[in-house]
Amino acid sequence: MNKRLKCFARDIKQQVKALYLASRDPRTPIAAKCLVVIVVAYALSPIDLIPDFIPVLGYVDDLILLPFGIYLAVKLIPEPLWHEFQTQVEKSSINLPKSWPAVLAIGLFWCMSLAAIVMHYGALSRG
């Protein structure tokens, strides 16, 4: 079981790297690029849709949402082009970028969302 999980995690990482290449290639269709950007940003985001510290549900996004997003993005990329990206990932060590402005933007989004929820429920409780 542990070996299967390690293989699964490695495959996801390889696919995210291939999607990153797809997002930067002009031959990738626009619809695919839009979805790829969302999936790669979510995969690289330090903040999850459902925080990992929540029992069971915390890992649902990592185990279901991310692979589903990858699946949809891959379906939008022409098959020969997708195989080319996978080959590039296998042949070279591609490092994904780390963007502190993106981390700050995502953190700000979550803080604003939390504040909006608190304000909404505070207004409901007052009447």
From TrEMBL:
> How is the protein disposed in the membrane?
Multi-pass membrane protein
Q: Where in the cell is it found?
A: Endomembrane system
Query: Which residue windows are transmembrane per the record?
Result: 30-47, 100-123
Keyword Translocase applies: no
Q: Give the domain of life.
A: Bacteria
Q: Which InterPro entries match?
A: DUF1232
Instruction: Describe the location of the DUF1232 domain by residue ranges.
Output: 32-68
Q: What UniProt keywords apply to this chain's record, in alphabetical order?
A: Membrane, Transmembrane, Transmembrane helix
Q: This chain belongs to which protein, by name?
A: YkvA family protein
Q: Which organism is it from?
A: Oceanobacter antarcticus
